[in-house]
# Entry
Amino acid sequence: MQHRRRFKQTMSLEERLAEEARRLREKAQSLPPGIERERSIRKARQAETGAHMSEWFRSPGLAPPE
# Structure
C-alpha cells in the first residue's frame, strides 16, 4: 500500500490564487495580443474568482457576494 505524501501549505488558498492571478497578468502583459494573451488573462480572472469564492465560503454568514 502506497502512502500519499502530505504537503503543508505555507500560504492560504486565497493567497495562492491571488499570487497565481498576479503572475498570469504579468505574463499576459509581456505577450503580444493574441490567443495566448487572452488565455492568460482568462486564467487570471478564474484564479481571482476562485479566491473570492473561497473567501465567501469561509465567511461566517455566507451572505451572497456583493
DSSP finds two helices and no strands in the chain. The chain has a mean pLDDT of 87. The helical segments are 13-30, 35-58.
